[in-house]
Amino acid sequence: MSKSIESETLSTQIRDSLRDDILAGRWAAGDKLQLVSLTKHYKTSSTVIREALTRLVGDRLVVLKPNRGFFVPTLSLAEIKDITELRCVSEEFGVGLAIQRGDLAWESELIAAHHTLERTPYREASDEGELTEAWDRAHQAFHAKLLEACGVPVLIDLASTLSDLSQLYGRWAGRATRFMDRDIAQEHRDILAAALDRNPEVASRLLRTHYETTLHAILKSGIEKEATESGREKAKA
Question: Which ranges of 122-222 would DSSP assign to H, the alpha helix?
Answer without folding.
Answer: 133-148, 153-173, 184-196, 200-220
